Amino acid sequence: MVSVAETPAQPEEAVARCELYRLLADPVRVRLLGLAAAEELAVGELAELLREGQPKISRHAAALREAGILLARRQGTWTLLRLDPRATTDPVVDDAVRAGQRACAADGTLARVEEVLAARDAETREFFARGGRPLRPGPPAELAAYLAALAPLLPHRRLAVDAGTGDGALLEVLSPVFDRVVALDRASAQLQLAGERLRRRSLENVELVCGEIDGPEVIRAVARALGGDPPEAGEALSGGADVVFAARVLHHAPQPAKAMRALVELARPAAPGGGDGAHARGGAVCVLDYEAHHDQALREQEADIWLGFSPGDLRGLAEEAGLSGVELRRLPSAWQGEGPDRHLVWQLLVGWRGARTSAFTEKAKGHHDC
């Protein structure tokens, strides 16, 4: 499209201007421009509004597109048209657009645009008015997409540790949220199941580690995830995870207090001196476990060592291990799945690690079957 020349027009420019005048002399094209300036509309919608045949509207639109006045984009079988905002810098085009809008307003065509837009929504409204898809129990298959959308809202999501990952069910929640995830278990059979889950669900930012919670394999994996060198034997990590999860793990631990200390050691320590900075408090430790119960059958069915923990005992374990700001809550039974432990009372503890404490004086040397 050629703009009005500030100097006397050359023959080629004059011809181009004449072509523009000829293009905009058709009243249908002018009204089409007025509508396209008001809303992005499909060719079929424009044909309905202008009460013209769709082939005719397509021909007019093609000419206006070739002149650089209209923009088009495909959406399936639709071709959507809108005014190129740069086109109105030409006073002739700008005058044509305004004239088209005035004409469409005068005959009521512009007011009918809302009706056309509402018709787009009619089929969708009817579908969901019938109830839409049948209700499926449990979390949605697209849960990872929802979690990925929430992830930017979390201030600290560089690294999560899933202690006792088992078959990796929690990884479907952690992987979409955190940049890196270290998932550990001392049973290689469980890690094989978790690995299959990672493959099927495309969870590519997870490292599976076979070892104890305080074992050297886990320490090295956390250091790698943080981009640093692993500590020397007997030394503590220089950093740590933003969140450490232990979901239904503690009641399997031979020494729950020791296991809790190991979880805390994997969390990022608070910045020295505290203050109001981003790391004024350290990484979080989240422990999901049962309240104290009397179901002895779980010792045989699930190899449980401890029959849950009272809220006071669980809080005591956390605070003695160095967590502050500890919060405890019971979870609704509807959140407890369909396993053999669904009848128990589940509790969630969350606490934050303080400034660095000394490394364990005694590292667990227990064997594992990896």
UniProtKB/TrEMBL annotation:
<protein>
    <submittedName>
        <fullName>Transcriptional regulator, ArsR family</fullName>
    </submittedName>
</protein>
<dbReference type="InterPro" id="IPR013217">
    <property type="entry name" value="Methyltransf_12"/>
</dbReference>
<feature type="domain" description="HTH arsR-type">
    <location>
        <begin position="9"/>
        <end position="103"/>
    </location>
</feature>
<keyword id="KW-0804">Transcription</keyword>
<keyword id="KW-0805">Transcription regulation</keyword>
<dbReference type="InterPro" id="IPR001845">
    <property type="entry name" value="HTH_ArsR_DNA-bd_dom"/>
</dbReference>
<dbReference type="InterPro" id="IPR036390">
    <property type="entry name" value="WH_DNA-bd_sf"/>
</dbReference>
<keyword id="KW-0238">DNA-binding</keyword>
<dbReference type="Pfam" id="PF08242">
    <property type="entry name" value="Methyltransf_12"/>
</dbReference>
<dbReference type="GO" id="GO:0003700">
    <property type="term" value="F:DNA-binding transcription factor activity"/>
</dbReference>
<dbReference type="InterPro" id="IPR029063">
    <property type="entry name" value="SAM-dependent_MTases_sf"/>
</dbReference>
<dbReference type="Pfam" id="PF01022">
    <property type="entry name" value="HTH_5"/>
</dbReference>
<dbReference type="GO" id="GO:0003677">
    <property type="term" value="F:DNA binding"/>
</dbReference>
<dbReference type="InterPro" id="IPR036388">
    <property type="entry name" value="WH-like_DNA-bd_sf"/>
</dbReference>
<dbReference type="InterPro" id="IPR011991">
    <property type="entry name" value="ArsR-like_HTH"/>
</dbReference>
<dbReference type="InterPro" id="IPR051081">
    <property type="entry name" value="HTH_MetalResp_TranReg"/>
</dbReference>
